[in-house]
Write a structure and sequence with these properties.
This protein is mainly α. The chain has 2 domains: about 200 residues, Rossmann fold (3-Layer(aba) Sandwich); about 90 residues, Orthogonal Bundle (Tyrosyl-Transfer RNA Synthetase), CATH 1.10.240. It contains 13 helices and 5 strands. The strands form 2 sheets. The chain has a 3-stranded parallel sheet. The protein has a two-stranded parallel sheet with strand order 4-5. The longest helix is centred in the C-terminal third of the chain and has 30 residues. The structure holds tryptophan. The site of tryptophan has 13 residues, from strand 1 and helix 7.
C-alpha cells in the first residue's frame, strides 16, 4: 500500500516497435488503472539484453517506449514511468532471489524453452534467470496486482512461489502479487494469420499494425487482412479473421460484437475492412501527434525520467533494505 492505494506494477520490453496489439491489449488499459492504483510502469531494458542488442538502437527504443507510455495517456506525475536500468535495486534483489529459486523451476518455463530454441547460439544465464529479474521487479515495489498477458502468467506464478518461499523463511517481507484480470484487454491477432498473436517481431510486415504506421499504411494492411469465406460480418469461431477485425473495431469504438454485426448487416468484407482501418487511424492519430510533440521536448522528458527514477529508487530501497536485513547482510553505517 502506498497512501492507501494498492500498488500495481507492469513493464514492457524496449525491443521492437509496439503494435496495435500492445496498445489495445495493454497500454490502453493501463491508463484506466491509474486512478485506482499506485502504478509503476517500467521500461524493462535490463530484460532486453538477454538477447543481443545494438547499443544505440536499444537506447533509442527505450526512450521511444517511455515516450509512448506518456503519449498513450499515462500521466507521468501520477504514474511512476521509469527505466529499469536506472534503479539499482532490480539487479540487487534479483541476485538475492536467484538464491531462492531452483534450477528445476526455471527449467520448466516455457518462454525460456522457446527463446533458447530461437537463440540457440546464445543461451546465456540471464535468459535462464529472466523470470527471477521479473520477480524482483514486482516484489521490489510490494505490488498487489500485475496486469500481464497470458504468456506471462507462468512468470507471475513463479514470482508468487519465490515470494512465498522467502516469506516462509523470514516472515512477511513480500506482498504476494495477483495477476490483474479485470476488464481484460483485447487479444489482438495477426492480420495475416488469425491463429497467431499480433507480434512486434513478426517477419511479415503486413501482419502487424505498428503504432507509428501512417494512415495509408494502416488502411492498406487492413485491406490485405486475411478474412474468411462466409462473406458476412459475423462474430464466430469459424471466421477467425473477421472475428479479430471485429475485436479491433470493438476496442477502438467501445462497442460490442453484436453492435458490429448489426451495423454491418448486409455489407461485405470490403466495407467492413475500410471501417476498421479508419477506426484504427482515428485512435492512433492523437497518440502519434502527442508522441511527436513529446519527442521534441527533450528537457521535459528528461525531467520526468529523473524524477520518476528517484521515486522508484526511494520505494525500491525500502524493500531492499528490509530484505538485506532479514537475510543477515551487515548494516550500513551512516
Ligand atoms: N516479461 C514481460 C514481457 O515480456 C515484461 C516484464 C518484465 C514484466 N518485468 C515485468 C511484466 C514485471 C510485468 C511485471 O511481457
Amino acid at each position: 500500500m502506498i497512501d492507501d492505494k494498492k500498488v500495481l506494477f507492469s513493464g514492457m520490453q524496449s525491443t521492437g516497435n509496439l503494435t496495435l496489439g500492445n496498445y489495445l491489449g495493454a497500454l490502453k488499459n493501463w491508463v484506466s488503472l491509474s486512478d485506482e492504483y499506485e502504478c509503476f510502469y517500467s521500461v524493462v531494458d535490463m530484460h532486453s539484453i538477454t538477447v543481443r542488442q545494438d547499443p544505440a538502437e536499444l537506447r533509442k527504443r527505450a526512450r521511444s517506449l517511455l515516450t509512448l507510455y506518456i503519449a498513450a495517456g499515462l500521466d507521468p506525475k501520477k504514474n511512476c514511468i521509469y527505466y529499469q536500468s536506472h534503479v539499482s535495486g532490480h539487479a540487487e534483489l534479483a541476485w538475492i532471489l536467484n538464491c531462492f529459486t531452483y534450477m528445476g523451476e526455471l527449467n520448466r518455463m516455457t518462454q525460456f524453452k522457446d527463446k533458447a530454441a530461437k537463440h540457440a547460439d546464445n543461451i546465456n544465464a540471464g535468459l535462464f534467470t529472466y523470470p527471477v529479474l521479473m520477480a524482483a521487479d514486482i516484489l521490489l515495489y510490494q505490488a498487489d496486482v500485475v496486469p500481464v498477458g497470458k504468456d506471462q502468467l507462468q512468470h507471475l506464478e513463479i514470482t508468487r512461489d519465490i515470494a512465498q518461499r522467502f516469506n516462509g523463511i523470514y516472515g512477511d517481507v513480500f506482498t504476494i502479487p495477483e495477476p490483474y484480470v479485470g476488464k481484460s484487454g483485447a487479444r489482438i491477432m495477426s492480420l495475416q494469420d488469425p491463429s497467431k498473436k499480433m507480434s512486434k517481431s513478426d517477419e511479415n510486415q503486413n501482419a502487424s499494425i505498428y503504432l507509428m504506421d501512417d494512415p495509408d499504411t494502416i488502411i492498406r494492411k487492413f485491406k490485405r487482412a486475411v478474412t474468411d469465406s462466409e462473406a458476412c460480418v459475423r462474430y464466430c469461431e469459424e471466421q477467425p479473421g473477421i472475428r479479430n477485425l471485429i475485436d479491433i473495431y470493438c476496442a477502438c469504438n467501445d462497442v460490442k460484437p453484436e453492435d458490429v454485426e448489426k451495423e454491418f448487416d448486409g455489407k461485405g468484407y470490403g466495407d467492413f475492412k475500410m471501417a476498421v482501418g479508419e477506426s484504427v487511424v482515428s485512435v492512433l492519430k492523437p497518440l502519434q501527434e502527442r508522441y511527436e510533440q513529446l519527442s521534441k521536448d527533450k528537457a521535459y522528458l528528461d525531467s520526468i525520467i529523473k524524477e520518476n527514477a528517484e521515486k522508484a529508487q526511494y520505494y525500491s530501497n525500502k524493500t531492499l533494505r528490509k530484505v538485506q536485513k532479514k537475510i543477515g547482510f551487515p548494516e550500513r553505517i551512516r
